[in-house]
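#struct-help
A.M.: can someone run this one for me? Single chain, 422 residues.
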Amino acid sequence: MTAMACLSDLNLGNFVNFLQRLRQQYEDAPLQRKIALAMGVGGILVTAVMASAAFLVSHHLIIANTQANQVMTAKLVEREIVLRIESAIALAKSLAGNTVTANALADNVGRATYLGPLMSAQTLPFPEAIIFLTDYQGRVVASNRILRPDEGMAEKALVAETLQFGRPVVAVVKQQGGGRALVAAFPVLYRLTGQTEGAVVLSIPTSVIPPGNSSRHQIALRDAGESLIAGSIGGSNAIQTEVPLVLPEPMHELRLRVVVSQDRRVALRDLDVLIVVFLVVCALLLMAVTVVSRAAARLLSHPMSELANAAARISDTGRPGPVMEVNRKDEFGQLARAFQAMLKRLSESYAVLELRVEERTHALKASEQKLASILSSLDDTVWSLSPDGQRVTYMSPSAYGLTGLPLEQLKHDLGLFFAEVF
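D.P.: on it. Structure tokens below:
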């Protein structure tokens, strides 16, 4: 734990040092580079925020549009399924409630002459669906087509319940050959006695109830227990929409629902194209921001560069020079005018100082000339020595008359001078 804390502190310290170095480099950078960097970073941040917002909005709109399309598709599918099931149920109820059907069941001859042709002539709105008639013992008497050996076996329990209680029974049953079927059994009552003479059984494989999947959507059926009884969905990450099937009695007891789903990756496939477009647009925006920021940096830093160059010229030459950008109306113009006023005052100070120096120099020369005139008119020799007494700093012209030697020789040879004088 201590090692992790030390490592964390070290990383934090390195990060802080890195930020400090970046700040120092930024502060030491020229003004033009600072402006360009600030505008570039700002442009990058704005571009990133805009791209992120556009991506999120596009993602939300695609999901919302997909769900809206799924709702419309689910309603259309639900209506189609309900109409087809209503048609099949109405047919089964009609056969079960037909008096001739009950009378024919009680008559062995009538079964062969009436029920066989009647059932074989029935057409159902679902392929592979069957409708058959049983007697009071549950034996198949007639059907709309020849039954395979594995057909009609899974419905026996429902037939037995219908014959026992004399009421319709519906259920989703497992078929022997695999898959499931939506089964409805309706009792055939003999009106004179009220006895149940048989049952009309409607069996629809659930695989044929929903229409086929489209290129974008998958369609399935789900029961009240959340079990998938037909079709397929795109997995747990799929975008799903459910619409309940409003079925007629007694089918409504099953509480079936139509499920329209789409794989999220398929739904967001268009977003991949948008991402590429966003990246291209962002790259173009970054290039534009870079060009504009550099141009703007040059434009904004030019007045300050002119002032800096003027200050450098003054520093190098020691003389005030002209300053540009004094006609601007912004802050740079105010600074240039203030700088120009300062240079003007400095020039005036230089002029006054030079005038005073010239006057003092002229006065000093006049004084020196006057003193030299006085000293040259004296017969006595006047000289002066350096503070250390080792060399002659001045010697009046009368020294030549006194010694007969040139003044320059006497100045350089102090011993000779004193030997001649003393």
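A.M.: thanks! The chain has a mean pLDDT of 78.
D.P.: also worth noting: The first helix runs from residue 2 to 28.
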